[in-house]
């Protein structure tokens, strides 16, 4: 645990929200769990897990079991509780960790969520609860359900050979730093920390 704290202090800046995007066809629950636990260990507050086939979301209990196992192995049992949320579900579970929040996402939380938000806004206009001039960035953010309570990702770690995020939160990654890694399979902590170090050193111009 001392190593996690030392690594956090070694970074000039730490992303608040990290997206873990797998573009490979065969996702690994153990390797993804390692990435999630490492994010939490260094102090990242929000983590999103995404694969374009929705495998992690359909099998989130299996992913959670692996995360719990690795939390106990790597972090011990003395961390405080945090809430794990699953997008578009009402369920929330308690596990042990260090004040981080996780969402498991699938393509339905991307473009489909934007379409649903637009439909909801049109319904509000039809009911004369809103006018078309009320629609702005903040309004659309509030209407989107998949990332309710989550800030936009500061960093996306994309795993695999595909040069695309394959539908991961297209509205929310306008200003996100995206770092590509060859694979999440058998990824090492050193590879993960190197990506964080690269993010900490980059100059973000926010579109300027």
Describe the structure.
The protein is of the alpha/beta class and 208 residues long. It has two domains: 2-107 and 149-201, Decaprenyl diphosphate synthase-like (Undecaprenyl pyrophosphate synthetase, 3-Layer(aba) Sandwich); 111-145, no CATH class. Helices cover 37% and strands 18% of the residues. The protein has helices spanning 2-10, 29-41, 55-58, 60-74, 111-126, 137-143, 189-201, and strands spanning 17-22, 46-51, 81-85, 92-96, 101-105, 155-159, 177-181. The strands form two sheets. It has a five-stranded parallel sheet. Strands 3-4 form a two-stranded antiparallel ribbon. The longest helix is centred in the middle third of the chain and has 16 residues, at 111-126. The protein is globular and about 55 Å long. Mean pLDDT is 81; it is low at 80-84 and 86-98.
Q: How would you classify the helix and strand content by structural class?
A: alpha/beta
Q: CATH first level of the largest domain: which class?
A: Alpha Beta
Number of domains: 2
| Rounded mean pLDDT score | 81
Produce a short descriptive summary:
With 208 residues, this protein is an alpha/beta fold. The protein is built from 7 helices and 7 strands; from the N terminus they run αβαβααβββααββα.
Topology, element by element:
Elements: H1 2-10, E1 17-22, H2 29-41, E2 46-51, H3 55-58, H4 60-74, E3 81-85, E4 92-96, E5 101-105, H5 111-126, H6 137-143, E6 155-159, E7 177-181, H7 189-201
Parallel strand pairs: 1-2, 1-6, 2-5, 6-7
Antiparallel strand pairs: 3-4
Helix pairs in contact: 2-4
């Amino acid at each position: 645990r001392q190593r996690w704290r030392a690594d956090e202090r070694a970074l000039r800046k730490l992303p608040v929200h990290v997206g873990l995007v797998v573009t490979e066809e065969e996702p690994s629950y153990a390797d993804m769990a390692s990435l999630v636990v490492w994010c939490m260990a260094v102090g990242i507050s929000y983590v999103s897990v995404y694969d374009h086939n929705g495998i992690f979301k359909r099998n989130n209990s299996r992913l959670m079991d692996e995360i719990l196992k690795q939390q106990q192995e790597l972090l011990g049992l003395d961390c405080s509780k945090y809430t794990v949320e699953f997008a578009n579900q009402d369920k929330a579970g308690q596990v042990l960790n260090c004040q981080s929040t996780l969402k498991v996402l699938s393509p339905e939380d991307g473009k489909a969520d934007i379409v649903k938000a637009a439909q909801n806004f049109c319904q509000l206009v039809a009911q004369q609860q809103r006018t078309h001039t009320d629609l702005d960035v903040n309004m659309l953010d509030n209407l989107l359900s998949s990332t309710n309570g989550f800030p936009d990702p500061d960093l996306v770690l994309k795993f695999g050979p595909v040069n695309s995020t394959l539908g991961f939160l297209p509205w929310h990654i306008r200003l996100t730093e995206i770092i590509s890694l060859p694979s999440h399979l058998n990824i090492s902590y050193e590879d993960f920390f190197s990506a964080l170090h690269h993010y900490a050193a980059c100059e973000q111009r926010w579109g300027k």
